[in-house]
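HOLO CASE FILE
Compound: zinc ion
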Amino acid sequence: MTAQEKRILEIVTGLSDDIFDFTSRLVAQPSTLGNEAGAVAVMNSELQKLDFTTSLIPLESEDVLSHPGYASVPWSISGRNNVVGTMPAVANGGRSALLNGHLDVVSAGNGALWRHDPFTPTEADGWLYGRGAGDMKSGIAAMTYAAHAIRKAGFGLAAPLTIAAVIEEECSGNGAIATLAAGYDAEAVLIPEPFGPTILTDQLGVMWFKVHLAGRPTHVLQAGSGVNAIEKCYPLILALREFEEELNHDRVPLAYRNTHHPINLNIGIIEGGDWPSTVAAEATFHGRLSFFPGTDYTDIRNRLEATILRAAEKDEWLRRNLPEVDFYGFRSEGHSLPSDLPAFQVLDGCHHDITGIAAERYISTCTTDLRAYHFYGKGQATCFGPVAENIHGTDERVHLESVLHVAKTYALFLARWCHLVE
Ligand SMILES: [Zn+2]
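Model generated. Tokens follow.
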């Protein structure tokens, strides 16, 4: 490690309180779907305070709606923004970098089940608790201050740097698509998702769907003449479970052969009926299904639809009242990358020089915004982030020491990939 690099790492260590404080201020913003404006404002003013040039990038624009990676969604995208901060190059000769993180969080569920209020960030025993503490506001704070540390140490970069804080990572991927459509891209892209200090090489495709069924309403005393739409969901869900099993054993790519049950179906919402004593006239269930890299979205969508319709054919009522299958939100395909891409090697070297050990490779069973950069960007993109627990669950928390490690590794990466200018 050079003396310049050591100086930068000392600066990052000195910024640790700022990193944790910024994380807490972001966690205090309950940025669930449609409610991201507060977190976007906190991010925007932090970037400005640290002397980045910022722009708000709306989800609602012609360039986004016509982008091949755009996923149609049933909720409003009007007035909802991503925020980008840029640090221009002060010389030539380096390689450009983009650091991406998502500001949106999933619902906290029943807050009463949490040890601490989910949107009141609370530190205990070296961990920070709160919805989004791990996924992924601490990563955003770490990457922002890693970039800031370069300048605070008295350096510039020999290539442009972009910081993109996006929304809709948890439902469509449209935020990252919007920033790409606005022209923000780079030769290396790092995303501090909370999968730990590993280099992500493979991720699955993910799709969302919903199935609507009609029944025949009656009073329960004549239940024999009614058809309960909620109960008619059962055979369809069972058929999807069989489809999930089939997918787990169908053309499994090499990267996933040692992963137990990589393909997962989740039925996440079920709604229907309107009265305990009335046979339910309607029901809808919503789900998420993953699929292997190399599988085309249209192909998996057609297979899912055929699975539902085949199951419906076996039921006298459903055969005459076919369920409606719709698709919205995620339509993200998976991808696999070689583990020795130049950006990955540089990142691995940074981790090694700080810890003395090589970074493990990570094969993911979910999707991230890497998908946008892989399919529609120009760079080598991966995730490397802090250690978190219970993301999307109760008592989500992030290990603060690991957040500091991400900030140090990213700062070192920027120094080596973009090249320092004194
Ligand atoms: Zn995430």
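CASE NOTES: Residues 3-203+335-421 form a domain with the Aminopeptidase fold (CATH 3.40.630.10). The CA atoms of residues 313 and 320 lie 8 Å apart.
CLOSED: yes
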